[in-house]
Amino acid sequence: MSNKIKKIWELTDSKENPQIGAIKINDGEFSGLVYQYGEVNFNEREDGQMEVKFKYNLIDNPNDMEENQDMMNFMGDILVELLDEQLGEGEFRSHVNLDDMPDTPDEVGNQIIREKIEQEKHRRDGKNFEEEE
């Protein structure tokens, strides 16, 4: 994933739905947009590639941006980057009991986002998860 994308978005708390974190775009074409991911599905295409389909909830759209394919592609890129960071770097909190994880993709995706927000808060506070265990 492009580092350029990472620099213009951040994980944030959601006043509308505080149990689930949100994504805030800080710069670029979609600046000011705040949204949450809903149900996330991974499907294998006939060519063997994986595609990601997701639902989302716009929390704040201060510039009344049109919801179009460019916006969906951008949100998809952020979702893939977020999941890649969680799973690819081994940062997914190892003390999460998978038996306690909800069964639906929507709830699992939301749990990952909540965990990432906690990590970001700890990083800002200068803590890491190993110190807490």
Give a verbal description of the structure:
This protein has 133 residues and is an alpha+beta fold. The chain has one domain. The chain is built from four helices and four strands, in the order αββββααα. A four-stranded antiparallel beta sheet has the order 1-2-3-4, sandwiched between helices. A hairpin with a 5-residue loop joins β3 and β4. The protein is globular and about 45 Å long. The C terminus is likely disordered.
Summary keywords:
133 residues, alpha+beta, 4-stranded antiparallel β-sheet, 4 helices, 4 strands, 37% helix, 23% strand, globular, disordered C terminus
> Could you state the order of secondary-structure elements as H and E?
HEEEEHHH
Total domain units: 1
Report the structural category.
alpha+beta
Largest sheet: 4 strands, antiparallel
The counted number of beta strands is 4
- Average pLDDT: 76
How do the helices and strands line up, and which of them pair or pack?
Blueprint (H helix, E strand, L loop, with lengths): L2 H5 L1 E4 L9 E4 L8 E11 L5 E11 L8 H20 L16 H20 L4 H4 L1
Antiparallel strand pairs: 1-2, 2-3, 3-4
Summarize the structure.
With 133 residues, this protein is α+β, with helices and mostly antiparallel strands.
